[in-house]
Write a structure and sequence with these properties.
The chain has about 425 residues and is α/β, with parallel strands linked by helices. It is about 40% helix and about 15% strand. Strand 7 and strand 8 form a beta hairpin.
Length: about 425
C-alpha cells in the first residue's frame, strides 16, 4: 500500500487571497514518501553536526511530533543517536553509518532545506488562490493608480482586464508610462497567497520560494495550526525585461546541487508576470509566444525533468506585456486573439502634463511653479517633442543632480529647466 496521502486544504472565500493549509500532524499527512522525508532529515542533521530535535523541526518546517517520529525511525535503523539533553529535548547527531548514508544522499541531491510539498497539493493550492478568483472593482483600481495621472477611459480598460484575470498588452510610444502602469497592477491586491519553499515531483526537488521575487507577510500567530512548508507572501510581482531567455521558462537544473529551480512563470503563479520591453528580449518574440500560446489559453503549462518525465503545472499568472513596438509586427493574429485586452497608451495633454509635474515636485519636495512648466511645454512644442508622461520625473531628476553637484538646494526655475533640457534632449 502506498504511504502517500494528500494533505487537506481548507477552503477560502473568493477574493480573500489564500486558503490556509492545515498543519500536518503525521508523516502521512505530508503527502510525501517516508523515505524522502527521512533522507532530508538525515542530510540536514549531517550538515549541522548536532541539532536539538526542535531545531531540526524548525529547519525542515515540520511539527515536532513529525520530526520526533522520524528521529525514532532513524535511530531504530542506527542512522542517528542521542548525544544529550537540553531543556528536556534530545540533542541528536548522525552515527558513522548515518554519515556515510548522508554522503551518498548528498551525491544524489544537495537539497537540505524545508520539506517540500507534493505536486498534487501545490496544484490544488494554486487553483484555490487563482488571481481570477479575486473580485476587483473601480475603487480598487482608483486606489492602486492614485499616485499616477491616468485618463478615466484607460482606467476603465485596465479595470476590466484585471477583473478578467487574463493577459493584456500595453503598447504605445516610449515614455508613455507602460512600465509604470504594469508595475502598479500588483498593488491592487491587498490579500496574500501561500508559496511553497519547494515542490516534489517523482522524487525530484523543485524550489519555488525566491527571496528576490517573493515578499513574505507576517506569519500566523499559531504556527502549529498551519503548514509551515508554505510561506505567506504578497501576490508575486515578477518582471522580465531584456534579459529574458527561453531557458528561463523551463526548469533550471543545477548540475552541482542536483536539484531544480522553478521557471519564471511558476514563481509568478497567483501574481503578476510583467514582460517589459516586449520584443527586445534575447529570445525572439515568436519563440516566446509559441512557448506560451497554449498555457495562456488553458491556464496549464507542461515542464520536463532531466530524465524526460513531463508533468502538468498551473499557469495562473496575470501576464502583462509592455511594448513600444507595434504588436501586429510582434505576434500573429492567433496569438493576439488570446491576449484579450490591448491598451494603447499615448502622449498626454498639457493639463495632464502639468498635473504629473506638480505631483513629481510634491514627491521630491520641490516648489511647483506653473509659469516655469508652461515655458517648458512651449519649449517642447518648438522642439517638436510630444508631451511624454516620463518627462517631468526625468527633467526634475536632472535638476536635482545639478543642484547636488553644485552643493545647493534644487530649485524649479527657468534656468534650471533649460539646463536640464540641454542635458536631456539631443536637439535642445
Amino acid at each position: 500500500m502506498s504511504d502517500r496521502v494528500n494533505m487537506s486544504i481548507l477552503k477560502g472565500k473568493t477574493g480573500t487571497g489564500s486558503a490556509e493549509t492545515a498543519g500536518p500532524r503525521t508523516i502521512e499527512d505530508l503527502g510525501l514518501r517516508r523515505s524522502l522525508v527521512a533522507d532530508l532529515a538525515l542530510k540536514t542533521l549531517y550538515l549541522n553536526g548536532e541539532l536539538l530535535l526542535v531545531d531540526l523541526a524548525d529547519q525542515m518546517r515540520l511539527s515536532f511530533s513529525i520530526v520526533n517520529d522520524m528521529f525514532e525511525r532513524l535511530r531504530k535503523e542506527q542512522l542517528c543517536e542521542v548525544k544529550g539533553m537540553t531543556g528536556g529535548v534530545h540533542r541528536i547527531s548522525a552515527t558513522s553509518q548515518g554519515r556515510a548514508r548522508a554522503l551518498e544522499l548528498l551525491e544524489l541531491c544537495h537539497y537540505a532545506g524545508p520539506a517540500p510539498v507534493s505536486m498534487d497539493d501545490y496544484v490544488r493550492q494554486v487553483r484555490v488562490q487563482s488571481i481570477r478568483n479575486v473580485e476587483v472593482h473601480r475603487a480598487d483600481i482608483e486606489r492602486a493608480f492614485s499616485r499616477m495621472v491616468v485618463p478615466p477611459e484607460t482606467l476603465t480598460q485596465l479595470g476590466a482586464a484585471i477583473f478578467s484575470g487574463r493577459s493584456m498588452i500595453l503598447y504605445g510610444s516610449t515614455g508613455t508610462g507602460k512600465t509604470a502602469l504594469a508595475q502598479a497592477i500588483p498593488g491592487i491586491y491587498n490579500d496574500h497567497v501561500l508559496i511553497p519553499y519547494a515542490v516534489e515531483v517523482d522524487d525530484q526537488i523543485i524550489t519555488v520560494f525566491d527571496v528576490h521575487l517573493h515578499e513574505p507577510c507576517d506569519e500566523p500567530a499559531k504556527k502549529e495550526e498551519t503548514d509551515m512548508r508554505w510561506v505567506r507572501c504578497r501576490r508575486p510581482r515578477v518582471v522580465a525585461g531584456g534579459e529574458l531567455k527561453l531557458e528561463m521558462l523551463d526548469l533550471q537544473f543545477n548540475l552541482v546541487t542536483r536539484y531544480y529551480s522553478a521557471p519564471l512563470q511558476m514563481k509568478a503563479n497567483n501574481g503578476v508576470l510583467i514582460v517589459d520591453d516586449f520584443g527586445r528580449q534575447r529570445v525572439r518574440p515568436e519563440e516566446l509566444l509559441n512557448r506560451w500560446i497554449a498555457p495562456l489559453d488553458r491556464g496549464t503549462d507542461f515542464l520536463t525533468l532531466a530524465g524526460g518525465k513531463r508533468f502538468e503545472v498551473p499557469f495562473e499568472a496575470l501576464v502583462v506585456f509592455a511594448t513600444s513596438l507595434d504588436p501586429s509586427e510582434l505576434a500573429d493574429e492567433a496569438f493576439l486573439r488570446r491576449i484579450q485586452t490591448k491598451i494603447r497608451l499615448d502622449f498626454v495633454k498639457p493639463k495632464e502634463f502639468k498635473e504629473i509635474f506638480r505631483r513629481v515636485c510634491e514627491e521630491t519636495k520641490l516648489a511647483y511653479d506653473a509659469r516655469v512648466v508652461d515655458e517648458l511645454i512651449a519649449t517642447l512644442e518648438r522642439m517638436n517633442h510630444p508631451l511624454r508622461p516620463c518627462y517631468p520625473h526625468e527633467i526634475i531628476q536632472h535638476i536635482t543632480w545639478a543642484a547636488g553637484y553644485e552643493g545647493r538646494p534644487p530649485h524649479l526655475d527657468s534656468e534650471a529647466v533649460a539646463q536640464a533640457c540641454r542635458n536631456y534632449f539631443l536637439s535642445a
